[in-house]
Amino acid sequence: MLLSMIVFAKPIKFALLFTFGNVLAVGSTAFLLGPAQQLGMMLDNARVFATAIYIGCVVIALICALWVSHTPLIIQSHFSNMLIILQTLIFLSIEQ
After folding, report:
1. CA–CA dist 54, 6 (Å, integer)
2. CB-based burial, 8-39: b 16+ in 10 Å, e otherwise
3. Which residues cross the membrane (predicted)?
4. How far apart are the C-alpha atoms of 7 and 59, rounded to whole Å?
5. Longest C-alpha distance within the chain, in Å?
6. How far is CA 9 from CA 6, 26, 38, 49, 71, in A?
């Protein structure tokens, strides 16, 4: 409950921390698999569109947080980011 309130109370701080967490998550899998294999898996034919949308959502979230500073846009960009993460997880669980 408290974590969900930080989105509305301090959306810029949430946007920066959420984006930093996403970068750390991708970086940790790159550390475990190796950067070349991670990049190859992200640019696979089945995942290239999800990767492009994911990176686009992260960039849009940072732009909305740092330059636009408009709370509804920040929340909407992070909501779309969470949806693409959920879609990727569902796709990976069905694929295997």
Report:
1. 22
2. eeebeebbeebbeebeeebeeebeeeeeeebe
3. 12-34, 46-68, 74-94
4. 18
5. 40
6. 5, 27, 35, 33, 10
State yes or no: pLDDT of 36 exceeds 60. Answer: yes
Q: What is the pLDDT of residues 49-69, one digit of tens each?
A: 878 888 888 888 788 778 877
72-90 pLDDT, tens per residue? Answer: 777 777 777 777 777 777 7
Domain count within the chain: 1
Three-class secondary structure of residue 13 per DSSP: helix
Tell me 66's DSSP state. Answer: I
Q: Which domain holds residue 76?
A: 2-95
**Spatial separation of the C-alpha atoms in residues 65 and 15, rounded to whole Å:** 6
The letter for the amino acid at 49 is F
> With 60 as the cut, is the pLDDT of residue 96 above it?
no
